[in-house]
Design a protein that fits this description.
Helix content: 40-55%
Shape: globular
Strand order of the largest sheet: 20-17-16-13-12-11-22
Structural class: alpha+beta
Number of helices: 21
Length: about 700
């Protein structure tokens, strides 16, 4: 076995071994499934979490408040009388987690469904009267500034405002359509448009309520409750019911087992938007574009009525295990109803995998590698590995005789720790890559173990932004610490410095016949080889180019349950020998960027747009239009900062001749986007600076006329 992988696996296995050896876990499980899940999760958190909080009344109160917020984020479902009734549980949830039967969830769940049914029943009455969009009115959107209704009448007023806002948005849309209509088309009056808008709002809200009542199950809401508990321990300790776990694995591996069709939505129905040629659905010859999906059945089980389902919920039911059968009840375009069994096959999310381009400008050719995730085979020996794929792309670019390489980790939320270690090894000869520390304080490190091999030794630039997280931060930090390349991007990356391991609850209860779900448990923190954690602080780039969402509050440091930043002992490692003078590099970079005012403009726009998120929403037509116009103008201005007027010369490397039409179309759009990507252009300029400062070649003859 590969030593790095062995060390990694051993380190991750320790907490689960301790749990399996415990005499308390798995003894006399209670009959109720929810009780079994909650008690097992509680024991797992207490005994296995990296930094467990005490399961006491304070912890209970956090869960109480957060779960109610998750269920009712607008404070329009529960009433103050409900909260008064629930309040006795705010110090009892910790007892339920440990040993007492589940009560809080059942109490809240039943009241939740009761209130939703009451609201749905009363909805038609709220939409009978015409809305006056000329009066002064607004809706408060900040959760902390809103209040729960003190009675049914006040609650009806809340929902009427919600309806009015939805109708206002539709009314403006209808007005815009009227203005664009041809002269031959009769112009409808504002009064007629208001009726249409009000009916649209009522229908849309009714569908939304129907989904919450009939399509979101008790299991879904219980899963949300358990996730609230695990997330209170830390933001990345998650709970997954079986279907949710499968979706997670699919995203991480870049493949799934499905029917080969793109699912859309039409008037409350799921619809077959496109059947992929050669896929399982196509092979049946009975599934066509435009078919409406009425029911989805798993093998011989009773089918589920999916009318009113959202696309993600429907897709979860369509996907499953390789070789299993899903039965779709379809309403054909001619009105006939047909049940079509389809055997699931492996499908791949091509947009998940690494791909490369070359960028020519003057006498410089830059290689560009896009990596959206650190994907891994997930136990499938034939599956794809991001480290292996990136190595292939590097070799393709070397065959193209590129002068430098840019690796784009923008929006890359992370993935496999093992893969990132292997990928760093492509660019350094040897040495430690990342440190990991267990909850007991013991630390170890994961090294590059490719016997001193370096696949690529030329100029390297790594692009990151505020959404680059976890494995992306490990890669960027290692490249930065070794001074192997230049990190370019937002003022800091996301700031996730924790490691999770999936632990099936059935293993702990010793009941392999019942899938109780899986906990992704935080068991370690990782650290840079210089000893600093990326937790909370992220990676600060060498050259700062702030992102569009720079000022928004979503990073790890903005989460109240995030673990703290700390540092451990620095390791011994040898920096890359051929490095540019960073002071000169930064001076050149700033002179280019400052001349355009790019950084200042991006930061100003991001701060202004972020401030609008919690602002009250106007229900006055004129004020709403003024606000919408200002936001749209500012957003347009902000996005234009990231787009160049003149296109770069970008060419795809190694296009698969057997690629599907969908894949080719995706790659074409991707290349067209890159041609005007301002930040990618700036990254290629940095490659040129590195070349000159390290004696690689003369500076580029590229003009700053983008």
């Amino acid at each position: 076995m590969n030593t790095t992988k062995s060390v990694f696996f051993t380190a991750l296995c320790l907490p689960i071994v301790l749990l399996l050896c415990s005499n308390d876990v798995g003894k006399a499980p209670v009959d109720d499934r929810y009780d079994r899940i909650l008690h097992t999760v509680g024991q797992l958190l207490e005994q296995g979490h990296y930094s467990p909080q005490a399961l006491n009344d304070q912890f209970s109160d956090k869960i109480y408040k957060t779960y109610l917020k998750e269920l009712d984020p607008e404070k329009v479902i529960f009433q103050q009388a409900d909260l008064k009734e629930f309040s006795k549980y705010n110090s009892l949830i910790d007892d339920e987690i440990r040993q007492t039967p589940v009560e809080f969830f059942y109490k809240v769940n039943e009241r939740y469904k009761q209130r939703l049914n009451e609201i749905k029943t009363n909805l038609p009455n709220l939409a009978k009267k015409a809305f006056d969009f000329t009066e002064a009115d607004s809706i408060v959107t900040d959760y902390d500034k809103r209040t729960f209704a003190n009675n049914a009448k006040t609650q009806q007023e809340q929902w009427q405002k919600k309806l009015k806002f939805m109708a206002l948005e539709k009314f403006i849309d209808l007005q815009d359509q009227r203005e664009k209509a041809t002269a031959e088309t009769p112009k409808e009056t504002d009064a007629a448009l208001e009726v249409q808008a009000r009916e649209f709002a009522k229908t849309t809200l009714d569908k939304s309520l129907d989904r919450l009542i009939n399509k979101i199950s008790d299991d879904d809401r219980f899963s949300m409750f358990v996730t609230t508990i695990t997330n209170t321990m830390d933001p990345h300790t998650d709970f997954f019911m079986p279907v949710e776990k499968r979706s997670w694995d699919e995203r991480l591996s870049g493949k799934f087992y499905g029917i080969g069709a793109i699912i859309g939505e039409e008037n409350g129905y799921l619809k077959i938007a496109t059947v992929s040629q050669g896929g399982p659905a196509w092979k049946t010859t009975e599934v066509n574009d435009g078919d409406l999906i009425l029911k989805i059945g798993e093998g011989d089980k009773a089918p589920v009525d999916v009318v009113g389902y959202d696309i993600p919920d429907g897709v979860k039911l369509i996907r499953g295990d390789k070789g299993t059968t899903v039965k779709l009840t379809l309403k054909k375009v001619d009105g006939t109803i047909k049940v079509v069994p389809i055997v699931r096959e492996e499908l791949k999310l091509e947009e998940t995998f690494a791909k490369s381009c070359t960028i020519k400008d003057g006498n410089q050719k830059t290689g560009y590698i896009y990596l959206p995730k650190f994907y891994t085979p997930m136990g499938d020996e034939g599956g794809r590995s991001c480290a292996a794929d990136v190595a292939k792309e590097v070799m393709k670019l070397q065959a193209e005789n590129v002068d430098g390489i840019v690796i784009d980790l923008r929006d890359n939320g992370g993935g496999s720790l093992y893969e990132v270690v292997q990928m760093v090894g492509l660019f350094i000869p040897d040495g430690p890559v990342v440190q990991v520390k267990n909850g007991d304080g013991r630390s170890s490190f994961l090294p590059d173990e490719d016997n001193g091999k370096v696949l690529y030794s030329g100029p390297l630039v790594v692009m990151v932004n505020e959404f680059s997280a976890s494995a992306s931060e490990i890669f960027a930090a290692a490249i930065q610490d070794y001074q192997r390349g230049i990190i370019v991007g937002s003022t800091s990356t996301y700031g996730k410095g924790t490691v999770q391991r999936p632990i099936p609850l059935s293993r702990l209860t010793r009941d392999e016949n019942t899938d109780l779900g899986t906990v992704h448990l935080t068991i370690q923190k990782y650290y840079r080889i210089n000893g600093a954690s990326t937790q909370l602080k992220g990676v600060v780039p060498d050259l700062v180019l702030p992102g569009y969402y720079e000022s928004y509050k979503f990073r790890e440091k903005d989460n109240k349950t995030a673990l703290a930043w700390d540092e451990i002992k620095k390791l011994s490692y040898k920096p890359w020998a051929k490095t540019p003078n960073m002071d000169v590099l930064r001076q050149r970079f700033r002179s280019r960027i400052d001349s355009t005012g790019l950084v200042e403009k991006v930061q100003q726009n991001s701060a202004w747009l972020s401030a609008q998120q919690d602002a009250a929403l106007d229900l006055n037509l004129q004020k709403y239009k003024e606000k919408e116009k200002a936001v749209n103008a500012r957003a347009k201005q902000a996005r234009e900062l990231f787009v160049m007027n003149k296109e770069m010369d970008v060419a795809r490397v190694g296009e698969d001749p057997n690629a599907s039409g969908t894949s080719v179309a995706f790659n074409t759009r991707w290349v067209n986007f890159l041609k005007k990507d301002r930040y990618l252009y700036e990254a290629t300029k940095v490659v040129g600076d590195v070349l000159e400062l390290t004696g690689g070649k003369s500076p580029l003859s590229m003009k700053n006329d983008r």
